[in-house]
Protein backbone atom coordinates (compact mmCIF):
# COMPACT_ATOMS: atom_id res chain seq x y z
CA UNK A 1 0.00 0.00 0.00
CA UNK A 2 2.84 2.40 0.80
CA UNK A 3 4.24 1.90 -2.70
CA UNK A 4 0.91 2.89 -4.25
CA UNK A 5 0.82 6.11 -2.25
CA UNK A 6 4.48 6.93 -2.91
CA UNK A 7 4.00 6.54 -6.65
CA UNK A 8 0.88 8.70 -6.60
CA UNK A 9 2.55 11.44 -4.58
CA UNK A 10 5.75 11.23 -6.61
CA UNK A 11 3.71 11.59 -9.77
CA UNK A 12 2.53 15.02 -8.72
CA UNK A 13 5.74 16.06 -6.93
CA UNK A 14 4.04 17.77 -4.03
CA UNK A 15 5.99 19.03 -1.00
CA UNK A 16 5.63 17.27 2.33
CA UNK A 17 3.60 19.70 4.39
CA UNK A 18 1.95 18.87 7.67
CA UNK A 19 -1.22 20.76 8.47
CA UNK A 20 -3.51 20.75 11.47
CA UNK A 21 -7.05 20.00 10.49
CA UNK A 22 -10.18 20.38 12.55
CA UNK A 23 -13.41 18.62 11.80
CA UNK A 24 -15.97 21.07 10.43
CA UNK A 25 -19.39 21.48 12.04
CA UNK A 26 -21.29 19.52 9.39
CA UNK A 27 -18.97 16.53 9.76
CA UNK A 28 -19.31 16.74 13.53
CA UNK A 29 -23.10 16.58 13.39
CA UNK A 30 -22.99 13.65 10.95
CA UNK A 31 -21.06 11.55 13.48
CA UNK A 32 -23.10 9.33 15.80
CA UNK A 33 -22.94 10.51 19.41
CA UNK A 34 -21.08 7.37 20.49
CA UNK A 35 -18.30 8.23 18.02
CA UNK A 36 -17.86 11.74 19.41
CA UNK A 37 -17.24 10.81 23.03
CA UNK A 38 -13.46 11.14 22.82
CA UNK A 39 -13.41 14.22 20.61
CA UNK A 40 -13.28 17.85 21.66
CA UNK A 41 -15.51 20.50 20.10
CA UNK A 42 -12.77 21.29 17.57
CA UNK A 43 -12.46 17.65 16.53
CA UNK A 44 -9.04 17.21 18.15
CA UNK A 45 -8.48 14.03 20.09
CA UNK A 46 -8.06 14.42 23.86
CA UNK A 47 -4.71 12.67 23.94
CA UNK A 48 -2.43 14.37 26.52
CA UNK A 49 -3.91 12.44 29.44
CA UNK A 50 -3.59 9.12 27.62
CA UNK A 51 -0.13 8.16 26.42
CA UNK A 52 0.35 5.49 23.75
CA UNK A 53 1.80 3.13 26.36
CA UNK A 54 -1.46 3.21 28.30
CA UNK A 55 -3.62 2.29 25.32
CA UNK A 56 -5.02 -1.14 24.53
CA UNK A 57 -3.35 -2.92 21.63
CA UNK A 58 -6.20 -2.18 19.23
CA UNK A 59 -6.04 1.52 20.14
CA UNK A 60 -2.28 1.61 19.52
CA UNK A 61 -2.76 -0.09 16.15
CA UNK A 62 -5.49 2.38 15.14
CA UNK A 63 -3.37 5.36 16.21
CA UNK A 64 -0.33 4.09 14.31
CA UNK A 65 -2.40 3.71 11.16
CA UNK A 66 -3.83 7.21 11.51
CA UNK A 67 -0.39 8.70 12.23
CA UNK A 68 0.79 7.28 8.91
CA UNK A 69 -2.34 8.25 6.98
CA UNK A 70 -2.74 11.87 8.04
CA UNK A 71 0.59 13.29 6.79
CA UNK A 72 0.26 11.33 3.55
CA UNK A 73 -3.30 12.61 3.03
CA UNK A 74 -2.31 16.20 3.75
CA UNK A 75 0.71 15.90 1.44
CA UNK A 76 -1.38 14.48 -1.38
CA UNK A 77 -3.94 17.26 -1.06
CA UNK A 78 -1.25 19.92 -1.59
CA UNK A 79 -1.12 19.30 -5.35
CA UNK A 80 -1.82 22.49 -7.32
CA UNK A 81 -4.39 20.82 -9.58
CA UNK A 82 -7.67 20.43 -7.63
CA UNK A 83 -8.52 17.11 -9.28
CA UNK A 84 -5.10 15.63 -8.56
CA UNK A 85 -5.24 17.04 -5.03
CA UNK A 86 -8.57 15.35 -4.40
CA UNK A 87 -7.53 11.99 -5.81
CA UNK A 88 -4.15 11.93 -4.03
CA UNK A 89 -5.78 12.85 -0.73
CA UNK A 90 -8.37 10.14 -1.23
CA UNK A 91 -5.73 7.49 -1.92
CA UNK A 92 -4.19 8.12 1.49
CA UNK A 93 -7.65 8.36 3.09
CA UNK A 94 -8.58 4.97 1.64
CA UNK A 95 -5.29 3.53 2.89
CA UNK A 96 -6.30 4.72 6.36
CA UNK A 97 -9.64 2.93 6.00
CA UNK A 98 -7.82 -0.27 5.05
CA UNK A 99 -5.50 0.09 8.04
CA UNK A 100 -8.43 0.56 10.42
CA UNK A 101 -10.23 -2.40 8.86
CA UNK A 102 -7.18 -4.61 9.31
CA UNK A 103 -7.12 -3.66 13.00
CA UNK A 104 -10.78 -4.68 13.28
CA UNK A 105 -10.02 -8.05 11.68
CA UNK A 106 -7.14 -8.62 14.08
CA UNK A 107 -8.73 -7.45 17.33
CA UNK A 108 -12.50 -7.34 16.82
CA UNK A 109 -14.97 -9.94 18.01
CA UNK A 110 -18.22 -8.98 16.29
CA UNK A 111 -18.78 -10.91 13.07
CA UNK A 112 -20.88 -8.15 11.50
CA UNK A 113 -18.14 -5.57 12.15
CA UNK A 114 -15.53 -7.97 10.74
CA UNK A 115 -17.68 -8.48 7.62
CA UNK A 116 -17.87 -4.70 7.19
CA UNK A 117 -14.09 -4.50 7.54
CA UNK A 118 -13.60 -7.13 4.84
CA UNK A 119 -15.96 -5.29 2.47
CA UNK A 120 -14.11 -2.03 3.13
CA UNK A 121 -10.72 -3.60 2.41
CA UNK A 122 -11.93 -5.11 -0.87
CA UNK A 123 -13.65 -1.92 -2.05
CA UNK A 124 -10.89 0.45 -0.97
CA UNK A 125 -8.12 -1.59 -2.60
CA UNK A 126 -10.00 -1.57 -5.90
CA UNK A 127 -10.59 2.18 -5.64
CA UNK A 128 -6.92 2.83 -4.76
CA UNK A 129 -5.90 0.97 -7.93
CA UNK A 130 -8.34 3.03 -10.00
CA UNK A 131 -7.25 6.33 -8.44
CA UNK A 132 -3.56 5.50 -8.80
CA UNK A 133 -4.06 4.75 -12.48
CA UNK A 134 -5.95 8.05 -12.85
CA UNK A 135 -3.15 10.01 -11.14
CA UNK A 136 -0.51 8.35 -13.29
CA UNK A 137 -2.49 9.33 -16.40
CA UNK A 138 -3.60 12.86 -15.43
CA UNK A 139 -0.94 14.35 -13.16
CA UNK A 140 1.27 16.80 -14.96
Question: What structural category do the secondary elements indicate?
Answer: mainly alpha
> How would you state the average pLDDT, rounded?
74
What's the order of the H and E elements?
HHHHH
The number of helical elements comes to: 5
- Total number of distinct structural domains: 1
Query: Radius of gyration, rounded?
Result: 16 Å
Low-confidence stretches: 1-29, 36-45
Number of strands: 0
Give the gist of this structure.
This protein is an all-alpha fold. It has helices spanning 2-12, 25-30, 57-76, 82-107, 111-138.
What do you see in this structure?
Helix 1 (2-12) packs antiparallel against helix 4. With 140 residues, this protein is mainly alpha-helical. Helices cover 65% and strands 0% of the residues. The model is unreliable at 1-29 and 36-45 (pLDDT under 50). It has one domain.
